[in-house]
Design brief:
Layout: E1 4-7, H1 11-23, E2 27-33, H2 40-44, E3 47-52, H3 63-73, E4 77-79, H4 89-97, E5 101-102, H5 107-114, H6 116-125, H7 141-151, E6 155-163, E7 166-171, H8 174-192, E8 197-201, E9 207-215, E10 221-233, E11 236-242, H9 249-266, E12 270-279, E13 282-289, H10 296-303, H11 307-315, E14 332-339, E15 351-352, E16 355-357, E17 364-368, E18 375-376, E19 383-391, H12 394-407, E20 409-411, H13 417-423, H14 427-431, H15 438-445
Parallel strand pairs: 1-2, 1-4, 2-3, 4-5
Antiparallel strand pairs: 6-7, 6-8, 9-10, 9-12, 10-11, 11-14, 12-13, 14-19, 15-18, 16-20, 17-19
Length: 447
């Protein structure tokens, strides 16, 4: 049994975890930097501990300070949220070695899926389709040239330890390859401390479709259907929806069963998401996120499953409260990521929020740590709110989304709300004719 849980994160995800704990009668501790002293999670947690100055490396990424906070407050468990240390296998091991419950997957699975090449090999072994590419890191530019000729252009240069689009370059002909390798290696070394690269076939205009899974410590694994995250900018998701508007029930059932079978064979525990590119009716695995996803609320909306609560229950050793046959898709849900960024340039816009008016009404959920007078700090991710709408079908959901975005007000700092209001009215979005490059082409066409 978990009696007190420490949240090793900040912002809206920290608040999301606190709310789940409150409903489960679990006491909470929030760690924070000096920049977040006045944040909503700090105000609402039962206890809070300042663990360092604003730079994440000296606070939210400092495992020793987090463990010290757990010790002095008597916490039983640690939830890492997403980002920061959530997919750090060494941190997960430290948590368990110090006698705390880690609310997440086993360290060995975090480590396995954090290595993109090892993850790809594992998925192939488990029967999951993958994108054609190199079998391992490329050893030299000469080897990369040879492999690219075999794979066929365009190819994608990717960092072995990458994520979020860093260390990733599209190469359309051989003349671009060597320079792309050098740039990707520099980004990978700076971002992940690992300059190794591999090659994949670049698929033109695919959709991004991912399957949410949950596994307990008793061998049961289920999928919570799929999310379509095709509206992206520079590999960063902007709008997500569930279910995907392009999958029929037979494809959904087949892929879901394949994913569950693979995760059961792997012995996967807790929440995870298998991400695929979907092109010409075929799925290609690209990576697995061994953590809670930013876009988890759309899945919660269509399944009525509290994913964070299930994470905590699983970590405490309890079995899943349902099986696959009990899960049903109810209606349609869409999430819009609202960020403190200029809607035209996407440059960060930290500063003081003078007015915050979230939308409401039936089928509307807003996950946010904002309040009037709150100062968005310049040190962290620019996500300030997630608007999630749910309705009986996709057309109704889009209408509800447009209405909700029109009501949403953030004053004092620029945000991406105006951009999202325009996106939701676009014909291509209403027809479901988008892909992972659609938003960038759309923005370029608009000047």
């Amino acid at each position: 049994m978990i009696r007190k849980l420490l949240v090793a994160n900040r912002g809206e995800v920290a608040l999301r975890i606190l709310r789940a704990c409150r409903e489960m009668d679990i006491k909470t501790v929030v760690v924070h930097s000096t920049a977040d002293t006045d944040s909503m999670p700090v105000r609402l947690a039962d206890e809070s501990v300042c663990i360092g100055p604003p730079p994440a490396a000296q606070s939210y990424l400092d495992a020793r300070q987090i463990l010290a906070a757990a010790e002095i407050t008597g916490a039983d468990a640690i939830h890492p949220g997403y980002g920061f240390l959530s997919e750090n296998a060494a941190f997960a091991r430290m948590v368990e070695e110090h006698g705390y419950v880690f609310v997440g997957p086993r360290p060995e699975h975090i480590e396995l899926m954090g290595d993109k090449i090892a993850a790809k090999r594992t998925m192939q072994r488990l029967g999951i389709p993958v994108v054609p590419g190199s079998d391992g890191p490329v050893a030299s530019p000469e080897e990369a040239v040879r492999l690219a000729r075999e794979i066929g252009y365009p190819v994608l240069v990717k960092a072995v330890a990458g994520g979020g689009g860093r260390g990733m370059k599209v190469v359309r002909d051989e003349g671009e390859l060597v320079d792309a390798l050098e740039m990707a290696a520099r980004e990978a070394r700076a971002g992940f401390g690992d300059a190794r690269l591999y090659l994949e076939k670049f698929l033109e205009r695919p959709r991004h479709i991912e399957f949410q899974v949950l596994g307990d410590r008793h061998g049961q694994v289920v999928h919570l259907f799929e999310r379509d995250c095709s509206i992206q900018r520079r590999h960063q998701k902007v709008v997500e929806e569930a279910p995907s508007p392009v999958l029929d029930e037979e494809v959904r059932r087949r892929m879901g069963a394949l994913v569950v079978r693979a995760m059961a064979e792997l012995g996967y525990v807790n929440a995870g998401t298998l991400e695929f590119l979907y092109a010409d009716g075929a799925f290609y695995f690209i990576e697995m996120n061994t953590r809670l996803q930013v876009e988890h609320p759309v899945t919660e909306a269509i399944t009525d499953v509290d994913i964070v609560r299930e994470q905590i229950r699983i970590a405490a050793g309890e079995p899943l409260g349902f099986d696959q046959e009990e899960l049903r898709i109810e209606g349609h849900a869409i999430e819009f990521r609202i960020t403190a960024e200029d809607p035209a340039t996407f440059l960060p816009t930290p500063g003081r929020v003078t007015h915050w008016h979230p939308p409401g009404g039936p089928g509307v959920r807003v996950d946010s740590h904002l309040y009037a007078g709150y100062t968005v700090p310049p040190y962290y991710d620019s996500l300030i709110a997630k608007l999630v709408v749910h309705d009986r079908d996709r057309a109704s959901c889009l209408k509800r989304a447009a209405r909700s975005l029109a009501e949403c007000v953030v004053d004092g700092i620029p945000s991406t709300i105006p951009l999202l209001r325009t996106i939701v009215e676009d014909e291509a979005v209403h027809l479901g004719r988008v892909d992972t490059g659609w938003l960038e082409r759309w923005m370029e066409a608009r000047g």
